[in-house]
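pinging the channel bc i need a second pair of eyes. not urgent but kinda urgent?? the chain im working w is below, pasted from the shared doc
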Amino acid sequence: MKKFLIVGLGNIGVEYVNTRHNIGFKIVDFIAQQEAVSFETVKLGALATYKIKGRTVLLLKPNTYMNLSGKALKYWMDKENIPKENILVITDDLNLPFGTIRIKPKGSDGGHNGLKNIQLILNSTEYPRFRFGISDQFKKGQQVDYVLGEWQAEEQEQLKSRYEVAAAVINSFVLSGLSETMNAFNGK
């Protein structure tokens, strides 16, 4: 049976729940709700599991804080014997317009501390990632406040439909593979 590890990046704590940086957590929360599964606290995070057409999907929200996300990813990857190509890391991206999706098989960390740590722990830049655009609508020197800031009301309204698209991305990745998913969803 094929297994997939979908890792939503974010920070634990009530003060981070609705921040732009936590879009990875929000997307896996949405998928868990759609699949009617609950997260349970496990070693280095919260995990929810569901099956789709003979495949097992593990949704992971690391509780290591963003900067140490690689530790949780690597632990569950090894524990469940999941190959790198069956991992998808969901993260926010300042370089993409709000709600834009970019799926890639590899790449740089783009200055993102969660991806930096994953790259360090895996000793590789070759692992699939799903970048969700949060835009760059902040003044010079305000990047941290913007990323750790909450969504505007208008963005929150638009997020509802973007979560649906994000869930479709995950299903496509699990059922059709990375290449087909990139062709179908990049730039959407």
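so The chain has a mean pLDDT of 94. and The radius of gyration is 15 Å. — does that match what u expected or am i reading it wrong
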